[in-house]
Amino acid sequence: MVTTTGEDVVLQVAGEPGSSLRWYRSQLRNGRSGDKIVIYTGEKMDYRQVDERYFVAASRKEEKSLVILDVKTADAGLFTMEEQFSRQTACVNLVVMGKLLDFQFC
């Protein structure tokens, strides 16, 4: 998904009925993706790992879409959703582009 800074995004996922979906975010180490940290446990958001700009919108039990408000450049990276019991994963690449400034020259 490609977005610009300041926009809101919804990373949509759905599992099979009865599945337990968790959201992870990669930690950056020396400019590279490193360990994954749990940001959504399947029941609640872990706000020690993220701020209130992140939340999970669940329209049905098997849908757990990650919503990011006011996207920042630092949000770019790899988000991962994993089904807790089967360990099947889905990765979403979020590309964040800065806004171009409008300059006027005299």
Please give a structural write-up.
The chain is an all-beta fold. The protein has a single domain (2-97), classed as Immunoglobulin-like, CATH 2.60.40. It has strands spanning 2-4, 9-11, 21-29, 32-40, 54-57, 65-68, 77-83, 89-97. The relative contact order is 0.31. The mean pLDDT is 83.
CATH architecture identity: Sandwich
Low-confidence stretches: none
Total domain units: 1
Number of strands: 8
Topology as a string of helices (H) and strands (E): EEEEEEEE
Q: Using the coordinates above, name the CATH class.
A: Mainly Beta
Largest sheet: 5 strands, mixed
Q: Which word captures the global form? A: globular
Query: Helix count?
Result: 0
As for the CATH topology, it is Immunoglobulin-like
Mean pLDDT: 83
Task: Tell me briefly what this model is.
The chain is an all-beta fold.
